[in-house]
Design goal:
By secondary structure, this protein is an alpha+beta fold. It has three domains: about 90 residues, Trypsin-like serine proteases (Thrombin, subunit H); about 110 residues, Thrombin, subunit H (Beta Barrel), CATH 2.40.10.10; about 90 residues, Pdz3 Domain (Roll), CATH 2.30.42. The chain has ten helices and 21 strands. Strand 2 and strand 3 form a beta hairpin. The protein is elongated and about 150 Å long.
């Protein structure tokens, strides 16, 4: 019995020893074939983590670069100026006469039938002070019975008409508000042809959709454009731009790339029967608007109560040939009233006016418009041709009672 136990124990011991030896040989052979497999796995894992972190950092840097690249002086200016742009809705009361009332027989029995009708209109405006003064065009709000101004936050105000000037097409409104974002006025005499400009406004009433102005970008195409009279409004020294201006943009701001107000968007030229933008828009220069605005604030209007005593005629080809003129630009004086400003200035019949102040005179229409730029008491430098010589005279504008 004891011998059997010894044999079993001996067998188990032999198996245990052999198992240990086999395991040792197996382990050492595997280690010889791939001595750093475990460490390599760990290194590879660390490498993947580092690369993932690097890729994430690169992606963030790339996104930041793209975002920063999208922000430029134009987008920053739009962001800062937009809150100072408003949409304007107006109601005018227009009077209409019954066509039959033109007939004396009809009018005898039915009277002079005149009736009133409400007419809705819209336009744009620019806030120019923190206490609520707003610029727009006279043709937008000058004849309005009711004016509603909509801000970019959706707030609406009833606006008061402070003053309006139909001749220059400038209108000044006021709302009862404080601490408003406003656009600072720049210097329209300092603009450069080709510099970037931004037109903001309410074309076609789109402001009402999201209470935000529409933005278009272009350049100053030309300056000092004398367009003459349009519906008894005189547009001189206008800024031309290819920034899109459409119906409803009237009265909105034209700003330079640093957000200074340089003009008031006013009118466009169209092609044929089209009423849309064709890249030829015009803005009233802000230096002229500033002068008008100061008068509207202090006097509620612009006083052009003066006379010149001149009668003039546009130069045609016949006059140009007779006087041996190089072109038909200018006007010829046909009459000078006695004791008038023109007479006192030494102007004579037959003088050909080429310039008045800083303005070149193209025709009679231009001369009339140029005179609207001046005020009673001011002197105008007049450049004329007399007896084949170019001379300069100075005419002081006076009232008829002076």
């Amino acid at each position: 019995m004891n011998s059997k136990k010894v044999a079993v124990i001996s067998s188990l011991s032999t198996i245990l020893v052999l198992s240990i030896v086999f395991a040792w040989f197996f382990y050492t052979s595997r280690l010889a074939q791939n001595p750093i497999t475990e460490n390599g796995d760990r290194s590879e894992s660390r490498k993947n983590i580092i690369e993932a972190n690097l890729n994430r950092t690169e992606r963030i840097a790339l996104n930041d670069e793209i975002t920063n690249g999208r922000h430029n002086i134009i987008t920053n200016t739009v962001s800062s100026v937009s809150p100072a742009v408003v949409g304007i809705n107006v109601t005018e009361i227009r009077k209409y006469r019954d066509p039959w009332a033109n007939d004396p027989f009809w009018r005898r029995f039915f009277g002079d039938r005149v009736y009133s009708k409400e007419v809705k209109g819209l336009g744009s405006g620019a806030i120019i002070s923190e206490d609520g003064y707003i610029l727009t065009n006279d043709h937008v709000a000058g004849n309005a019975a009711k004016i509603i101004v909509t801000m970019t936050d959706g707030t609406q105000y009833d606006a008061k008409l402070i003053g309006t000037d139909p001749v220059s097409d400038v209108c000044l409104l006021k709302i009862d508000a404080r601490n408003l974002t406003y656009i600072k006025m720049g210097d329209s005499d300092d603009i450069l042809i080709g510099e970037w400009v931004i037109a903001l406004g309410n074309p076609f009433g789109l402001f009402a959709i999201n209470d935000k102005p529409t933005v278009t970008v272009g350049v100053v195409s030309a300056k000092d454009m004398n367009l003459g009279a349009v519906e008894d409004r005189y547009y001189l020294s206008m800024i031309q731009t290819d920034a899109a201006i459409n119906g409803g943009n009237s009265g909105g701001p034209l700003v330079n790339s640093i957000g200074e107000l340089i003009g008031l968007n006013t009118l466009i030229y169209t092609a044929g029967s089209s009423t849309g933008n064709v890249g030829v828009g015009f803005a009233i220069p802000i230096n002229k608007v500033r002068k008008i605005t100061d008068e509207l604030k202090t006097k509620s209007g612009v006083n052009r109560d003066f006379w010149t005593g001149l009668r003039i005629q546009t130069i045609d080809e016949g006059i140009a040939r007779y006087y041996d003129l190089p072109s038909t630009r200018g006007v010829i004086i046909t009459q000078v009233a006695r004791n008038s400003p023109a007479s006192k200035a030494g102007l004579e019949v037959g003088d050909i006016i080429l310039e008045a102040g800083k303005f070149k005179i193209n025709d009679e229409n231009t001369m009339i418009g140029v005179l609207q730029e001046f005020r009673r008491g001011e002197s105008i430098r007049i450049k004329v041709i007399r007896n084949d010589e170019t001379i300069t005279k100075y005419m002081k504008l006076e009232g008829k009672t002076e």
